[in-house]
Here is the input.
Amino acid sequence: MSETPATVTVDHFRMDFGSTTVIRDLSFEVRAGETFGLLGSNGSGKTTTIRALLGIYPPTAGRLLIDGTASRPDAGVRLGYLPEERGLYKKEAVLDVMTYFGALKGLDPRAAKAWSSAYLDRVGLADKEKTRIDKLSGGQQQKVQLGVTIMNDPQLLILDEPTKGFDPVNRRLLMDIIDEQQANGATVVMVTHQMEEVERLCDRILLLKDGAAHAYGTVTEVQDSFGAPTARVVHERPLPRSDLWRVQRDDAGVAVLEPGPEVAPDALLAALVAGDAGVTSFQITRRSLDDIFVEVYGADARSEG
Amino acid sequence: MARHNLGTVIRFEVGRTLSKPRFWVAILAVPALLVVIGLLVSLSGSGTDASTAAIAKSRFSFGYSDASGIIDPGLAAKAGGHRVSPGSGPAEVRAGTLTAFFEYPATPAAHAVRVWGADTGFVENGRYSAAAQNLLVASAQARIGSPALAALAAGSVQTDVTTYDARGAVTPGLAGVIPPLLYLLLFYLLILLLGNQMLSALLDEKENRVTEMVLTTIDPTDLILGKVVSLFVVAVVQILVFAVPLAVGYAFFRTSLNIPDLGLSGLSLDPQRMVVGALLLISGFALFTGTLVALGAAMPTAKDAGPIFGGMMILLFVPFYAVSLIVTDPSASIVQIFTFFPYTAPITALVRNAFDNLPLWQGIVVVAELTALSAIVLRVAVRIFRFGSISYTSRVDLRTVLRRPSAARADGAARRAS
Here is the structure.
């Protein structure tokens, strides 16, 4: 991925609540247009980091910048934020609530109303415009919540546990929306426990542990930092001897090879082909993020349980 | 700095309150009830007048005995009376041969006039004692010989007092007390109408879990300011809904509704007391508002906030237990304590200001104290809201929230750096 300007900069961020230090020293960047995953166990400080980034909590120390500016409501950055704790004004009508949030996000009230009507039509709630929020089903409320999140065409979309509590239909809707926002050039920051979502959506990730970054980089880089990738090779003839790999297992024509340091997968394949191993299948496998998550946070989860 | 999104919050809050049918039902119920009561009073008033006139007109014959020698036999005969032996009067009444018998004692001023009569119902039986009294009074007045002296002897004396202050100017008396006392009424109205709503305004945000989304679009200070302003607007609407029917009733239906003449044209406005009163009202209102907002932000639900809210409401009424002392002896220790203790100060100082026993310097000190404390409480409220409003299910640890000067400095530093 080419270097692009940072949309989010977190620089030596520290956060204390009374005598409790939640974030010790955290630095990372989120580049424009990328999808970034902020991962960690419960209580690791993910939500605190997001709240500080959004200016809801003032940091104890350090800088948290969006487009080079500390986040303020009047900074002019188009933000879409789906907090972990969700809610809307339950006793108000759907269209009134959406129009209000649109106006708070800087839209002209008429434009906010028009956008809301179009969105409600798209998600099958056109006849619910005047219905009170608390008269909607849980799934319908989730749709309204999503609409409120994206109604200002956000340049930075921050999603805290985005699929938490969502039914499968709305989860699909959410994923479609994230895809759309990405296609429109939005930068996306996701806080999640769902590793399959991370692997599918995120360009880069950060694993937060003990108030600091435990691992940080592209998904591949993070995976590789927890153990070298391996090559699964199906071959018809004996493998040649080479310093480029170490054979972990070779049984019935299926071998698992561990490439040496700095050995790229295509160099490995080229050496196998040159060695006349009769390769019929070649597949690089890495540790799953699920495994990595369990390795990093397993002890925390057990102590919580 | 322009207040970002303040207008949006005010429009939303005012709009959503005024668009609720239950709001109008609740506030129109009181004026409607007043109108109904007024009509009933008016109707029953005319009924009472009619029955009183009917009773007055109903003449009856009676006997009397007079040990005092005051009763004028001519007046008694004109009223339908004739002398009867004191021993036989009650027996004649009991036998039905006499409608009523009055026994005037030797000293009517010291002893009761005894009355016997044939029963004509609870209300109409009153005519016997009325007739007995009227005959005695009329006879006494006839003995004095002058209606004017008779009126004076009855204590019907009016005085017109004029007093002067140290500069020789005429002091207005009660006419000068009423206008600044209206601030006290307004203060009570505002707190009683808005107090509960102030408390629940932020709880609404909290209980609906919308705080986080809102705080990314508006500064907490502006949000709180918007809430307070919109509550104020709603309160003004409520007061107008109460006041307009009253004003219309007073202006056009005063006579038929038996409303006394308030003599509004005679009121006197003392500029100093009016200004000090206005400042006490504003600063006192700000203090109670800030405190209620902080309370709403710190507590997870309205139920949790209830006991402290109740305590604050009690503080509003505590000065009234010493109101006679506040009016007559402002130097008393308890009055001085009430004057300067922040949560009793608005009421006490407003009463003292109205009765012109609050020295200007004390007024200035109280206003300054309330203003400074309001600013501090409002800052604390904003800080509690920033942290507490996201503590959706738990009470805020105030020590944690308030022990964050470094956080505020870091925030400022980060903003300067950016």
About this structure: The first strand of chain B starts at residue 62 and ends at 66. Chain B has 17 helices and six strands. Chain B has two domains: 61-151, 174-408. Chain B touches chain A at residues 2, 4-5, 8-9, 12, 15-16, 204, 208-210, 212-219, 222, 386-387, 390, 392, 397, 399-400, 403-404, 406-408, 410-411, 414-415, 417-418 (CB under 8 Å).
